[in-house]
């Protein structure tokens, strides 16, 4: 899975001058089903629009067992992935500046 030219061109040029990493066309996106999130007896799994999406759900469902509900994100998670993370990454805690 790779970033398209259109996706690379949509970053605000001002972000690059502020030190953000530029988006490059044809750069490999770090998509992985292992970047899922588990909570309250269920798992939310990234989806990429590939035939392997359902296979990933099935494998994780078998691994977690019948007491767990494993679901994919409707519509996919490509937009999240374009910002260098996915489902598990965006559910992480944020520390307060005073706690550092």
Automatic annotation (TrEMBL):
One of its GO terms (molecular function) is protein-arginine deiminase activity. InterPro entries: Peptidyl-Arg-deiminase_porph (IPR007466). Keywords: Hydrolase. Its EC number is 3.5.3.12. The keyword Hydrolase applies. It is an enzyme of class 3 (hydrolase). GO terms for biological process: putrescine biosynthetic process. It comes from the Eukaryota. This is Agmatine deiminase. It comes from Monoraphidium neglectum. The lineage of its organism: Eukaryota, Viridiplantae, Chlorophyta, core chlorophytes, Chlorophyceae.
């Amino acid at each position: 899975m790779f970033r398209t030219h259109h996706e690379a061109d949509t970053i605000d040029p001002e972000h690059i001058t502020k030190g953000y990493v530029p988006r490059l066309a044809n750069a490999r996106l770090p998509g992985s089903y292992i970047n899922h999130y588990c909570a309250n007896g269920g798992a939310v799994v990234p989806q990429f629009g590939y035939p392997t999406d359902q296979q990933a759900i099935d494998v994780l469902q078998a691994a977690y067992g019948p007491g767990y509900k494993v679901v994919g994100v409707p519509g996919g998670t490509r937009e999240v992935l374009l910002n260098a993370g996915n489902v598990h990454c965006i559910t992480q805690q944020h520390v307060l500046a005073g706690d550092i």
